Amino acid sequence: MNAPTLFGLCAAVLVGLGLYGLIVHPQPLRKVLSFNLIGSGVFLVCAVIARRGAAAGVGGDPVPQALLITAIVVAFAASALAVALMLRQCDETGSNSLSSDPGPAPAKPPADGEA
Amino acid sequence: MTTPAGLLLVLAVLLPFTGVLLGLVLGGRHAQRVAWVTILLGIGIVLAITRVLLNSGASLVYLLGGWAPPLGVALRADGLSVCMMLVVALVVGAVGVYANGDFGTPAGQSEARAPLAFWLLLLAVWGSLNLVFVSGDIFTLYVALELLTFAGVPLVALDGRAETLQAALRYLVYALLGSMFYLLGTFLLYGAYGTLDIALLAARVGSQPVTWMAAALMTAGLLAKTALFPLHLWLPPAHAGAPAAASALLSALVIKGAWFLVVRLWVDVFAGIVTLPAAQLLAALGASAIIVGNIVALRQARLKLLIAYSTVAQIGYLFLMFPLVQALNAMRLDTAAAVTGGVLQAISHATAKAAMFMAAGLIYSTLGHDRMADLRGAGRALPMTITAFALAGASLIGLPPSGGFLAKWLLLSAAIATAQWWWVLVMLVGGLLTSAYVFMVVVRAMAPAAPGWSPKKQVPGYQQAAVLGLALCSFLLGLAALLPVDMAQIGRTVAPLVGSP
Predict the structure, then answer these.
(1) Residue B147 near residue B127, CB atoms below 8 Å
(2) Is the pLDDT assigned to residue A107 strictly greater than 60?
(3) Which pLDDT band, with edges at 50, 70 and 90, does A57 fall under?
(4) Nearest residue, CB atoms, B143 vs list A49, A52, A70
(5) Share above pLDDT 70 across residues of chain B, in percent, rounded to a whole number
(6) Nearest residue, CB atoms, A49 vs list B162, B170, B187
(7) Which residue, B340, B358, B356, B360, is CA-closest to B403?
(8) Distance from B269 to chain A by nearest Cα, in Å?
(9) pLDDT at B500 over 50
(10) Residues of chain A with C-beta less than 8 angstroms from the C-beta of B142
(11) Cβ–Cβ of A53/B184 closer than 8 Å?
């Protein structure tokens, strides 16, 4: 197995794990973490493309690297926005879940303790 | 090559963002004034772009730094982009007039955070939409789309109540997932074809698995952002919970950004490789959206939720154009009717839905609630607003001479020309269902008020006039058929930029 295939498979695993987390967990913090996991996978794909597309003598294709930096900044800003919203929601309601039933609010402290 | 007046495209993008920064620095009650100066200048710029486009009959192009596409980034505005820019400028102007009432800071009052945020976000939405419309490469489009999301999400949570915060978070999660899929598709396309420019990509893409994968990922991501049927769950709470002026922006404009990108991809980039069954699938989702959205809208107990579900249904119409374009292409016929029909549907929905949400906002402040069961007296207190609601509703139903009528007429004739009668059926049933809930609202609002009832609050006349003006634009848009040129088709023959004079 050559390096690009290996990295490509790693990226696929990261995206898969992230998607699973994003769909399964109702807590927004976990959703944001999962989103960052997906992001890492996608960025890894981009890095592989940069390495593979390198012309002879150049370490990497510069265009994907530029795209990568922009995309990382955007993903960081998105996470920051999400965290700000989450904190505000926690201030307002005392709970942080996206599921619409208010049930899990009292059951939260033990779940937190476990984690 | 940069065309003369290409610099206008840069201005159309930069001006709103300059306004955002200036408003943020000056802060407080100055933000509103900065916003108004920017809106007026921005409308001027968009009109100038329209004039240049009509006079030259070709797309406007601006090469950033003078570098041509394989190396540099191009801004390009064809007829489609300019049509959308015009309607965005119109809606932003009308929402601005309306918001003077809700988000103004009168001399005696202390400054609050919500008005400042609203005026800055209004400009940010405008700037990012203009960037979506003029971007010439798929990565700039990604950045524009993210800007649009970052401007749209805080608009949902403007009043800071717990349920709107939750709606905003849910919207953000959908939007972020969508943009990651879109980004992955972009990277795959770059890896396969070594370019990001739309015109160059259109010439290079071939039918191979990596292109299909990229097309599927990008489309799925954009569908989540547009809120097409199975991915629409975030839309109703987000759009119905926001303040009326913000709902109008979100429902009329923000979702159109992602939709416009789907059109760019399917009609410009992947025109050669998308198959009819794929386009049929997209339209089938649209058809389900029309049926489900309309039926759920009929069962809503609150006016704003009804309008939000009506948006879910109207998004469906926007996706009916794809199999029609594909089939016309396959039959080597002119695709103009289907493309123009789709764009007209977007434009008439943008104006009508903005008018409806603002009308709902006025009804809410007059009655003190927006429960469907008790709209009595609204017609007496707000005759202009109810008229506007009815006119906007007529445009959504598709009664002549509204914009919705012309759009549906073009789509219907394209469907008949390509022998796809089932879309005709969907459009007719959708129109019937739409008319049911529009009439329900109008009839209930026209009922006489309870004796001794008086409005909770007098709404200013200019707010009502802004709503009525926008609804009239939507209602009279059908007269665009009388225009000598089909503006949406100017500069539509996509040719690679390199090598062309």
Answers:
(1) yes
(2) no
(3) low
(4) A70
(5) 98
(6) B187
(7) B340
(8) 20
(9) no
(10) 71, 74
(11) no
